[in-house]
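To: structure subgroup
Subject: Chain for Friday's discussion

All,

I'm putting the inputs and outputs inline so they're searchable in the archive.
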Amino acid sequence: MGILNRIFSRIGAPAGASIAADIAAVKTETDKTQYGVVHSGDINLLSPSVDQPASAIEFPLAELTDDFIADGEITAVGQIDIYRFRKGTDAGWTAIVTAGTPAGTALGSLNYSYAFPTASWAVGDLVQVHMSGAQVTINGNVFTIPRKTIYGVVGLNDILQDLEDGGRLDLIIDAIASDVQKIDEAAISGTPTASSLATFIATGGTALGTALPASKSLYDGQSGGIDAVNRIMGKKQIKAVTADLHNDAGTYDIVTGTTADIVVESLIFSPRVDVSDDVGGITAISVQTDDTTNQVFISQTEGAIANLTAYNQLGCIAPVLVRAGKKIQFTIYGGTADADPTTCDVIIVFRAVTNGGYLA
């Protein structure tokens, strides 16, 4: 108020009095305190490591004009508190340093040196730092700095360096390779390590947890055992064969159910040449199983000669069970077809009821 009093006392003063100078002085002091507000930066926790040279914990202070607070203006350094959380050990944040005393600096900041001793810290521990109670006095005005908090990881640089150098990362990779055995190499062992992943990738689709015989591995698939994969229970399979109608009246084999039962989803029988104009020989065909009670895919009526035109598709789209060892056959009625050969395409779509079933 002294400057303002001097300003007001100059009103009516003789010419030449410096009111402007006093106003400038007021502006200088109010700018310096920014109307009584001081701000603080974030706490800087500089890469803490266990039992390394003391890490500097810094807390910058500045005016709103971004000028550093002078050392003499820090009239109370407050206190610092450091907490630790260690997974598997600490139920919550555990106080390690309580009411530590920071030091002021000529650049208007507070700092605290701490070495994170092994008695209290280990690589990977989480650290929480509080700074509170610091006070700054400017032109007789006292400003208390609000409490600041920062979090960090002790030994983070060590962890990253280990990964960069290949230390821990190599150990992890080696452990994975040991457990599963690499299967991306050109040559794969025919006798993989017992219970390794390779023993589960092979014949029969064995579930994880039950190893295949020691000789079974992906190697078997590369050596011709890939059929085992194609014949997994429920996997769609397709069989395409031919039948020749230039034969005497009688019944002939098309395919045989092998290893395990299968379910036929569809069967198509299609002549490649026109048989409908043949005279004095073939009168019809049928397709059925050789069960005691036949399961019929195409009846004699459906297979009448009038329907045996070139590329006409006679068929059955319905599930039919063919048991292992049973056959799908076709029957020629009346006599032989004219053309030699009279080739017909037979296309069968089916699935194995249990692993390994197929048509041969």
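Points worth raising on Friday:
Residues 10-16, 31-37, 182-186, 216-224 have pLDDT under 50 and may be disordered.
Helices lie at 2-9, 19-33, 156-165, 167-180, 218-230.

D.
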